[in-house]
User: Fold this.
Amino acid sequence: MRTFLVVFVAILVGCGSSEDAPAPITAADAAVDTATVADTGLGGEEVSTDAGLKCAPQPITGWTPKWYPPTGSYQGECTAAEIHEGVVSCFSPTATEATCKAARDKYPDCAACMVTDAYATSTGALVQYTDPVGLIDRNVGGCFALKLGDSSKDGCGAKVRAAVDCGLQACGKACAPPKTLAALNGCIMKANADPTFCKTYFDAAEKCDLDNKDKVRDCSYFLTGEPLVDIFERYGALFCGTAPSGDAGTDAKGD
Assistant:
């Protein structure tokens, strides 16, 4: 079974984390190959010193997925150069809080388009989670919705987002830093394979990926070792860049 990679990155965008909270893993540590994550076998074995829980899927009783549609495609808020500078300044192995802040201050409109709260009414290229775990990741559900032209609550974008959120709901708190990225992904793999956790949501998302693989290839739901900065730049171009010739972009509205 294939697995997608959830990306821990330093919270360099937005308000930052509490001084009492454990620091997220750095962007440099996040640039790992999917096969490496899949082969670690760490999920379910380690103990989270924060929550006193094993890094294993936890009950999701009472949780139901919600859909947070994308802001739109090719909104013209960023040039290619601005996207590149922002991504490198905030998410490359050499990024620091200072370089990220400088880029955000330099291109505020682009930064606002690029990163939004994960639970905003409409979501940008990258989404920032603060609950149940602090991380920033690509907006895979939003990418599917834009690529397939369907931002409805019953579309593939919503199904992919449900699978992502289910994995984080089941594993986020138990596998939060200082646990490793590999531990979190190992836990999510187990949740995705278990009908009592996320298998129903994951199977629906995987079917969407397989049925539309040529259209959603650039969404990189299943990572193959491509550098994260390249993926983040591609997301930035889709959401916030200028439309290619012949494509006027969309406002991503759906029922």
